[in-house]
């Protein structure tokens, strides 16, 4: 790499760190254990794990089949279309693949024992899926959708209270048809894309704040960095870059990440995103820093599995 390019990259990284005003954990940690390769049943995927990693794959889905991690292995959840594990890994929420007695439902699971409680969410023809946990693992939110022609349009959300074992559905007037709801870092508000920006909602569905022109939040379990200071989005159409990072407090862009991923599955630490990149006939799940540099490969799977909508759920330890 030419010296001038190296200097430019260093300066760019310093500017990003200053803009986010957040601590910068390193990817490397002092430890003795060697990385381990894990094959995911029913897929072509191999995941590489390190015992010092801040997050690990705890569930995955492939063409409507849901798998949950228990110990060192993964088990398919018969009758469920997805399963999402809460931070720290004690609880999980499985979404039913079909209506029961005219209702969509979830199963609130104790991961260690495998025991669960079924909770109704919404009545047919609505569905509630894409479950996302709050950081304290006390609540989960699901996005409610209704079929509109050949597509599904968002109408609101369902909040599942893990302690009470209950669910409450909320209709959101004027919600973006493509919105997917997740929690704000402190777990008091909900966040979703809204007409090319990012909107914060109260738990009653009321609008609290809108960041216009940010693009919509990326995918994954959490669009906010671990500190909560930074928000990752798909850049507005006017930007050359595809992924943007914004200062949550000021609403100003902090970084334009020079990668072209097929998806982003959340944050790894304060300076790295989990991104899915195309590489010939395979797809690689990588750690990308906020300049767009790939620093590590986390998983590899086939293009065929990608076409079957494979999704790996990373949960913070």
The biggest beta sheet reads: 6 strands, antiparallel
Tell me the strand percentage band: over 45%
Strand order of the largest sheet: 1-2-24-23-22-21
Q: Which fold name fills CATH's third level, the topology of the largest domain? A: Methylamine Dehydrogenase, Chain H
The radius of gyration is: 19 Å
* Average predicted local confidence, pLDDT: 91
Structural overview:
The chain is mainly beta. It folds into two domains: 39-49 and 218-317, no CATH class; 77-212, Methylamine Dehydrogenase, Chain H (7 Propeller), CATH 2.130.10. The chain contains two helices and 25 strands. It has helices at residues 3-20, 303-307; strands at 36-39, 46-49, 55-62, 65-70, 73-76, 80-85, 91-96, 103-110, 116-123, 127-133, 139-148, 151-161, 166-171, 182-183, 190-194, 197-201, 207-211, 230-234, 243-247, 253-257, 263-269, 272-279, 282-289, 294-302, 311-316. The protein has a six-stranded antiparallel beta sheet with strand order 1-2-24-23-22-21. Strand 22 and strand 23 (282-289) form a beta hairpin.
SSE map:
Layout: H1 3-20, E1 36-39, E2 46-49, E3 55-62, E4 65-70, E5 73-76, E6 80-85, E7 91-96, E8 103-110, E9 116-123, E10 127-133, E11 139-148, E12 151-161, E13 166-171, E14 182-183, E15 190-194, E16 197-201, E17 207-211, E18 230-234, E19 243-247, E20 253-257, E21 263-269, E22 272-279, E23 282-289, E24 294-302, H2 303-307, E25 311-316
Antiparallel strand pairs: 1-2, 2-24, 3-4, 3-25, 4-5, 6-7, 7-8, 8-9, 10-11, 11-12, 12-13, 14-15, 15-16, 16-17, 18-19, 19-20, 21-22, 22-23, 23-24
């Amino acid at each position: 790499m030419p010296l001038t390019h190296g200097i430019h990259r260093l300066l760019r990284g310093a500017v990003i760190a200053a803009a986010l005003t957040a601590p910068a954990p390193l990817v490397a940690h002092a430890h003795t254990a060697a990385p381990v390769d894990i094959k995911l049943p029913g897929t072509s995927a191999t995941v590489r794990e390190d015992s010092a990693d801040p997050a690990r794959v705890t569930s995955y889905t492939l063409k409507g089949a849901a798998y949950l991690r228990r110990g060192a292995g993964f088990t398919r959840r018969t009758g469920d279309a997805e399963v999402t594990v809460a931070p720290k890994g004690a609880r999980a929420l499985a979404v039913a693949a079909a209506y029961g007695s005219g209702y969509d439902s979830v199963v609130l699971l104790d991961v260690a024992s495998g025991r669960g409680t079924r909770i109704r969410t919404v009545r047919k023809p609505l569905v509630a899926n894409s479950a996302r946990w709050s950081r304290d693992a006390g609540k989960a939110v699901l996005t409610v959708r209704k079929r509109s022609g050949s597509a599904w349009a968002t109408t609101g959300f369902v909040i599942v209270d893990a302690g009470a074992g209950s669910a409450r559905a909320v209709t959101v007037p004027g919600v973006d048809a493509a919105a997917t709801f997740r929690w704000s870092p402190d777990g008091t508000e909900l966040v979703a894309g809204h007409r090319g920006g990012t909107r914060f909602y109260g738990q009653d569905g009321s609008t609290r704040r809108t960041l216009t022109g940010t693009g919509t939040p990326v995918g994954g379990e959490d669009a906010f960095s671990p500190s909560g200071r930074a928000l990752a989005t798909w850049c507005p159409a006017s930007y050359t870059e595809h992924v943007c990072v914004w200062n949550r407090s000021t609403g100003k862009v902090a970084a334009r990440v020079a990668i072209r991923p097929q998806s982003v599955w959340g944050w790894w630490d304060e300076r790295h995103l989990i991104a899915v990149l195309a590489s010939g006939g395979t797809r690689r799940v990588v750690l990308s820093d906020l300049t767009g540099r790939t620093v590590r490969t986390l998983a590899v799977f086939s293009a065929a599995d990608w076409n079957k909508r494979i999704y790996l759920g990373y949960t913070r330890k």
